[in-house]
Amino acid sequence: MIEEKDRLFNVWCNEPxxxxxxxxxxxxxxxxxxxxxKSKNIYDTNSIIDCKNNIKKLWEKINSLIGxxxxxxxxxxxxxxxxxxxxxxxxxxxxxTFTEEIEKIKHQCNETWINRKEYVALTDRSMRWQPxxxxxxxxxxxxxxxxxxxxxxxxxxxxxxIISKKLCPILAKLVNLSVATGTFPxxxxxxxxxxxxxxxxxxxVSNYRPIAILSxxxxxxxxxxxxxLGKYLQQNNIVNKCQHGFLKGKxxxxxxxxxxxxxxxxxxxxxxxxxIFFDYKKAFDTLxxxxxxxxxxxxxxxxxxxxxxxxxxxxxxxxxxxxDTLSDRVAVRSGVPQGSGCGPICYLMHVxxxxxxxxxxxxxxxxxxxxxxxxxxxxxxxxxxxxxDIDAVVKWSHDNGIILxxxxxxxxxxxxxxSHLSISTPKLITHEYSCFHNHLINCNCxxxxxxxxxxxxxxxxxxxxxxxxHVDYICSKLRILLSKFxxxxxxxxxxxxxxxxLSLVESIISYALDSYGLTFKTYIxxxxxxxxxxxxxxxxxxxxxxxxxxxxKLFKICKILPVHLKHxxxxxxxxxxxxEHDLSIVTNNHSTRSVAAxxxxxxRVNNYFGDRTLxxxxxxxxxxxPADIRQxxxxxxxxxxxxxxxxxxxx
Length: 651
Prior knowledge:
50% of the residues lie in helices and 10% in strands. By secondary structure, the protein is of the alpha+beta class. The protein has four domains: 2-42; 88-239 and 292-341, no CATH class; 266-280 and 350-462, 2-Layer Sandwich (Alpha-Beta Plaits), CATH 3.30.70; 468-577 and 633-648, no CATH class. A hairpin with a 2-residue loop joins strand 8 and strand 9 (369-376). Helix 11 (289-298) packs across helix 13 (342-350) and helix 16 runs parallel beside helix 19 (521-535). The longest helix is centred in the N-terminal third of the chain and has 32 residues, at 19-50. It starts with a helix and ends with a helix.
């Protein structure tokens, strides 16, 4: 066909003004191009079907089709660095930069500004180490991923899994001996560091984050310790309630749900909410060993783990790796390795007392992301109180050896768009440490930057708390995906395309939906119209034509919930069995339908912000469900019945 196309083209070129020959060529060219595209699509479809039993290869093929292929980390670094220097020099440059960056921002000072007894809540509990067994080690090994790179010992986790039965008793003895003697093997203290690009210029080494790759044996030892430590902290409620990071049963979703509900309650009472979003510089890398060990004691973690962690953090080193080249060995002077099992739980204990210094504001933390709120009717009354808490956070950070990033700390004033109160931008300051050393004399510190919207844990929050910015942000992401789905629809079977929808599109829509799903119906309709455009690609042409009069039928055909029902589903299952919301049954001296059905009281509210509060939404949603679902105590059965019911009420 291509030869015939070329022949017709040459015939037309001999007589360029002959319209008949031109028409013959263009028709055959289009026919040829369609045949080529059809052959390409058949080839791509067959190659995807061949990969259906290998998820990794399947995703690699799909990413190549939609243009999501990324160059390898090593090639990205090598291609952007100066070609006149060797790879070993590049590695050493990274190693020096990672160390110098931490040393530059560290604040060495023996002076303390707050008495720890004023804000540390000491526990009367004490953790006791339980020696691990070969069975415990085997369970830990089973949970380990085999896709991770090996550490300096070059022992892969897949190799350990093969001989785990023989190795487990030896590793159990090693872990128990290590903890009992309070020593960590020196051979396991060396890490390989891989530079991961954050943002900005690829040529600037300061725009890379060091991620540590530890040996497989080190990971197993750390996991054994972390499992017992995490269980102790949660069972005894040691970790502050404001912390939602790295804890079982807590996540960004639980934080955002509580955060959203508190603000909606304030706005229902016609109050102004001032929120401060703090940012820390290299929080994990600047932890001081002595401060961390002291914080662990306050959490009830004593010997032998105290001594074990002290030795674990002493004498560590790393080598930066690019390609097959390693840098010179560099000593670690502070911090916990990013990528280690102990890092997150060490940080939780280190910052556990932070919220204790706050006297006037409520707080929310996810690892090192801290947000504080204060509401009131008069901004002039609440600003001095907020400033006191900001000063307390700065002083706590100074005493505990971590550095606030004043440039990235933001202020957001949240208020109802219908409020007629005229307010000026509050002037709140995160003073530098030197300013407090000078007793605030001749202070030149800049006020916290006031913004109209802020991105917090991946969610865009605007000053009127309408969620319009976040919905627009989601829509923009979905439109990009839609174009890629349209391209894939010619090459990928519908079953695989549906799996891609559930993994890529549903994950974007579902994240924080129980929070932003309380917004106006017009915003939700934007998302549902985009959902329908995706669903058109997940059905055959015949099915699509049959639903032409109402495309909302596609939700039921594809067994995918629209956004408003997905929000109902998430809200119901996330609040199922939780005792925080005191739901009262409708009672009446006379027999009524509500009493007979065992429905809950729905409180009256003042405005649409009150309509979004959990005290209103939870009983309202539960009352809309049949009695057998509402009264179901088993969460698994509740989820199953709820999903069936929601699909049943679809058009």
